[in-house]
Task: structure prediction
Amino acid sequence: MIMQFETLALHAGQEPEAATGAVTTPVFQVSTFAQDGIGQPRGYEYARTGNPTRTALETALAALEGGAHGLAFASGLAATQAVFQTLRPGDHVLAGDDLYGGTYRLLEQVMRPWGLQVDYVPVGETAAFAAAWRPATRLLWVESPTNPLLRLADIEALARLARARGARLAVDNTFASPWLQRPLERGAHLVVHSTTKYIGGHSDLVGGAVVTSEADWASQLRFLQNAIGAIPGPWDCWLALRGHKTVAVRVERQTQTADWQAGRLAAHPAVEQVFYPGLKAHPQYELARRQMRAPGAMLSFALRGGFPAVERFVGALELVLLAESLGGVESLICYPPRMTHAALPPAERHRRGITDNLLRLSVGLEHAEDLWHDLEQALEGGSP
Result:
């Protein structure tokens, strides 16, 4: 039976439990499983290797991304590390130059000393990836949209480039969610998520995931998942499954509100620039229309007046919370230079466009008018 996205989100991998008929996948809070004899497990042996709650989540995630294999990890960075760990010392990664600060830290402070070669190129310029190619290039790593400047990679073009030259393309799809974008359908070899964000959706878990249809890559990743042990516990898997069911309705509503907020912010005199692929002024507006269902619920904006204006604005907010993370039901504001991207040296941040007056907004499920009222009053100096 062919099912649409919303139906898959509710049912893929989540059949009623066999023993009792429970319609929600149980939390199998167990570390080991009894076997019927030596070499005769009943499908599970030890919970680091596999757990029924985790299996349900992995099956569900693969279905949403249109992949054959899903793997759940303890965090988005654990998932990212596993992907890089499939490479060998001396291999070369071409990464988009606008990316999460934690990924930059992992590449520069963990993987480069280990022996990985890394270059960063403008994420929206396919020709730049081709120009920076080396004989040792094995992986293209991009976020789309990017964190925090909401730039887009042309996934189909990069996938063609990678396949033509014997490499692979991995796309961090966290900012979009599977509801807005399915990179595997556009030729990517692998998709990574921080399930902490839109898939979990309620700011109550930390997790990560990898989805691929490449059997050999999935086999390597599953080996690393077990050998390294960076797995989510069953309760976190259950929470991710809970959020997974409503990702379509949440992200659709959040995107509608974000689109409205972006237009209003762009028109406000206190705002210098808005970064949002749903605005026609965005340089990749047409690409967003082509490869995404909608432009998403993340936006960034720069304030006139530099960091003092940022401090005044953040201090005046009453509804929107100053916090890291994103994709939850509540709206969160983040100051990337000192929060999510603090791992980048100041000169590197500025070179990449992460200026001292930049803020990142994750739009939640508040009423659009209430959210705008809070943003507007903060832009104008706070409530009387």
In short: Residues 247-267 form the longest helix (21 residues). The domain at 37-244 is CATH 3.40.640.10 (Aspartate Aminotransferase; domain 2). The first strand starts at residue 69 and ends at 73. The two ends are 58 Å apart (CA to CA).
